[in-house]
């Protein structure tokens, strides 16, 4: 029923030696290459390659619920502006788990806001993100592998200049390709 996941070590029906695949970056080697899925939300950001273990899914959903209940002021303000298709008629979701595989282990992280139609993820960064730049870089690479755009804003930008934030989002969404 669903398309089979892509295997970087297969061409057609014959296996090829992994040494002939070529050297990819560590992240690309560790991540499972994923194929598009017709069921966007069940397979993690429109990608399909692994069946999410129930305990991983349960933990991700509990974490997302906790984060939705304990939003920062900046997240609350942003959510009020984008909920119910208030921004350009686009549907945004908040605190959405993103599943991936790393070193043969299923993992996830929670993105702050996601617009699946526009393939856009919005991250609102507080002070903690100054201390976890490497982790954020890793998340950004995973998101880009899944062919999503990511925009990051600081809490202060949301609190002090929300109009400029939405101008940047609009610019990202509607810029024309030359």
Can you give a write-up of this model?
The chain is an alpha+beta fold. It has one domain: VSR Endonuclease (Endonuclease, Chain A, 3-Layer(aba) Sandwich). Helix content is 35%, strand content 23%. It has six helices and eight strands. The strands form three sheets. The protein has a four-stranded mixed β-sheet, with helices on both faces. It has a two-stranded antiparallel ribbon with strand order 1-2. The chain starts with 9 loop residues before the first strand and ends with a helix. Residues 1-48 have low confidence and may be disordered. Pfam families: DUF559 (PF04480). InterPro entries: DUF559, Endonuclease_DUF559_bact, Restrct_endonuc-II-like. It comes from Caldithrix abyssi DSM 13497. Residues 61-172 form the DUF559 domain. This is DUF559 domain-containing protein.
Keywords:
single chain; 178 residues; alpha+beta; Endonuclease, Chain A; four-stranded mixed sheet; 6 helices; 8 strands; disordered N terminus; Restrct_endonuc-II-like
Question: In percent, how helical is the residue content?
Answer: 25-40%
Number of strands: 8
Low-confidence parts, pLDDT < 50 over ≥5 residues? 1-48
**Separation of termini?**
38 Å
Strand pairing plus helix content: what structural class? alpha+beta
Strand composition percent = 15-25%
Which topology does CATH recognise?
Answer: Endonuclease, Chain A
Number of domains: 1
Which architecture per CATH?
3-Layer(aba) Sandwich
Task: Specify Rg, calculated over alpha carbons.
Answer: 18 Å
Major beta-sheet overview: 4 strands, mixed
Overall residue-averaged pLDDT value: 75
């Amino acid at each position: 029923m669903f398309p089979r996941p892509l295997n970087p070590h297969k061409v057609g029906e014959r296996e090829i030696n992994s040494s002939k695949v070529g050297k990819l970056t560590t992240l690309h080697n560790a991540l499972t290459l994923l194929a598009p899925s017709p069921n966007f939300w069940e397979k993690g950001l429109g990608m399909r390659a692994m069946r999410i273990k129930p305990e991983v899914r349960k933990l991700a959903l509990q974490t997302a619920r906790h984060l939705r209940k304990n939003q920062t002021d900046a997240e609350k303000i942003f959510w009020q502006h984008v909920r119910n298709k208030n921004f350009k008629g686009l549907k945004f979701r908040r605190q959405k788990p993103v599943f991936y595989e790393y070193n043969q282990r299923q993992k996830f992280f929670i993105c702050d806001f996601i617009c699946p139609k526009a393939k856009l993820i919005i991250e609102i960064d507080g002070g903690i993100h100054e201390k976890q730049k490497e982790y954020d870089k890793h998340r950004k690479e995973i998101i880009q592998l899944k062919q999503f755009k990511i925009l990051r804003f600081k809490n202060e930008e949301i609190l002090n200049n929300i109009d400029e934030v939405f101008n940047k989002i609009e610019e990202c969404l509607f810029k024309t390709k030359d």
